[in-house]
């Protein structure tokens, strides 16, 4: 799901549901887990809730963990 959010910022729940062979409730639950982990964020755009990846925590993990192993 993060790959899909990364590929195109600003996707509605319905758009994400089209990409997975699971129920709308399952996609919503997974988005909630990603939001709880601060890896995705939902923002209101008019009447629509649109989801984006939250790149800050991912960059922090990369900088503090991955960079350590590739030096």
Account of the protein in words:
The protein has 71 residues and is of the alpha+beta class. The protein has one domain: Arc Repressor Mutant, subunit A, CATH 1.10.10.10. Helix content is 56%, strand content 20%. The chain is built from 4 helices and 3 strands, in the order H-E-H-H-E-E-H. The relative contact order is 0.17. The model has no long low-confidence stretch (mean pLDDT 90).
- What is Rg? 14 Å
Distance between the termini: 29 Å
CATH architecture: Orthogonal Bundle
What is the percentage of strand-forming residues? 15-25%
Q: According to CATH, what is the class?
A: Mainly Alpha
Number of domains: 1
| CATH H level, superfamily name | Winged helix-like DNA-binding domain superfamily/Winged helix DNA-binding domain
Mean pLDDT: 90
- Give the CATH topology: Arc Repressor Mutant, subunit A
What's the SSE pattern? HEHHEEH
Instruction: Briefly note the structural class of the backbone.
Output: alpha+beta
Strand order of the largest sheet: 1-3-2
Helix content: 55-70%
Number of helices: 4
* Spans of at least 5 consecutive residues with low confidence: none
Shape descriptor reads elongated
Number of strands: 3
Main sheet summary: 3 strands, antiparallel
């Amino acid at each position: 799901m993060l790959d899909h959010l990364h590929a195109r910022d600003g996707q509605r729940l319905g758009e994400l549901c089209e990409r997975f062979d699971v129920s709308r409730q399952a996609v919503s639950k997974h988005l909630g887990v990603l939001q709880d982990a601060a890896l995705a964020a939902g923002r209101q755009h008019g009447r629509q809730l649109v989801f984006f990846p939250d790149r800050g925590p991912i960059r922090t993990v990369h900088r503090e963990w991955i960079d350590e192993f590739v030096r």
